[in-house]
Amino acid sequence: MMKIRINERLRELRIKSGYTQNQIAKILNIDRSTYSYYEIGKTMPDVSALMILAKVFNISINELLEDESRPHSVADSGIRSDYVHGKKNSSHIYELSPQEKELVGLFRAYPDDQKTSLLLNLKDRLKNSKDSE
Q1: Does residue 90 contact residue 58 with C-beta atoms inside 8 Å?
Q2: Most buried one in 14, 56, 109, 127, CB count within 10 A?
Q3: pTM of the model
Q4: How many Cβ atoms are within 10 Å of 105's Cβ, its own excluded?
Q5: What tens-digit pLDDT sequence spans the chain (133 residues)?
Q6: Got the DSSP string for the chain?
């Protein structure tokens, strides 16, 4: 059985997504040093953190945990559809400010069934702030 190198995977995904360690740590509500330990392999994120990270990086938990060193079957077309090997980087947020990146990450980590309510709340707050001007 091959060892999954989750630490390397997390670092690669974070960099490709345009996040800093500090931004990811804020989203996970942990210290930056704790997240840094995940990336260097000193500690392992718990299951709930892995689920949030998969959402933030816009991939499935299976893709996050996938062992990239395993050989692909002969039936494989050779085209990788996962995040790291060719899928359009739908998590690309380099052009956003640090606060915007954090907002996107937090939104992705938010439970799916509550995202609509969250957006409506933000829209109401914006409308109310414009009305009070």
Answers
A1: yes
A2: 56
A3: 0.65
A4: 24
A5: 445 689 999 999 999 988 999 999 999 999 999 999 999 999 999 999 999 999 999 999 998 888 655 544 333 334 344 434 444 445 555 577 888 888 888 898 989 899 999 999 988 888 888 787 7
A6: -PPP-HHHHHHHHHHHHT--HHHHHHHHTS-HHHHHHHHHTSS---HHHHHHHHHHTTS-HHHHH--TTSPPPTT--S---STTTTS--TT--TTS-HHHHHHHHHHHHS-GGGHHHHHHHHHHHHHHHHHT-
Number of Cβ within a 10 Å radius of residue 87: 15
All domains of the chain in start order, with CATH = 6-69+82-131 (1.10.260.40)
Question: Which structure tokens are listed for 98?
Answer: 């640090």
Provide the residue count of the chain.
133
